[in-house]
Amino acid sequence: MPLRKRKKAQTRESLIAAAMELFDKNGFESTTVDEIAALAEVSRRTFFRYFATKDLVLFPHQEIYVGLFRDMLGHPAPGEEPFDTLRRASLEMARHYTRERETHLRQQRIIQGSSYLIGRGDQFDDDWEAAIKETLLGAAPKSKGAVDRRAAYLAAATMGLIRAVLREWYESDCRKDLVHLGEEAFSLIEASVRDHWALANGKGARRPM
Predict the structure, then answer these.
(1) How far is CA 209 from CA 16, 206, in A?
(2) Which terminus of the chain has a lower count of CB atoms within 10 Å, N or C?
């Protein structure tokens, strides 16, 4: 990495570390941007070069994670159905989260101490849900009717399952196997998603025996 980019990355990481330390100690609402900048030994103006608002420093990898998720969804394996792509991408993100479990646990504890941050996290979830819906629509004929509606319902249901899985993981202090929890959750909706895809492509849906 060129020296200039390396220095920018170091400054960004210093701001994140300073913010996390102060949020842990004083809470999100009681911590100011000036205090974060001072602890990171940069100016207030520098802080806003990296983060448009104070809350974004607590979600520093949101854009990267969603981008990675979308990239995996957009590159299915040959012959892979949308459900399999969605499951594979989601479980790979679970592995990313597991590798950074301490950071995610610390972040979650700060979020749970602020009603504003809880709401902010819900807003970010909309980005993940939109990516899931796009995958469920896939190459099916674009429709404003049943196909689009079913995709929206299933995307919301999938996102609800993901939230429930993450909640259980956080409540275990991130000790449980997140990938295993994800596999179990996706098994609950597999039939519904596959039926949706079959209907969306005019193939009919499987029916219970």
Answers:
(1) 54, 9
(2) C
User: Residue 202 has what pLDDT?
Assistant: 62
Instruction: Count the neighbouring beta carbons within 10 Å of the beta carbon of residue 121.
Output: 19
* 66 & 165 share domain: yes
Q: State the Cα angle at 208 between 207 and 209, rounded to 5°.
A: 115
Q: What's the gap between Cα 173 and its chain centre?
A: 18
In this structure, the answer to whether residues 23 and 79 fall within a common structural domain is no
- Who has greater pLDDT, 140 or 19? 19
Question: For the whole model, what pTM was predicted?
Answer: 0.83
Q: Which domain holds residue 25?
A: 3-52
Pair (71, 154) in one structural domain: yes
- CATH number, domain at 126? 1.10.357.10
Q: pLDDT tens for residues 147-170?
A: 788 888 889 999 999 999 999 999
Q: Contact, 129 vs 152, CB < 8 A? A: no
Confidence (pLDDT) at 183 = 95
Distance of CA 136 to the CA centre of its chain: 17
Structure tokens at 7: 């220095």
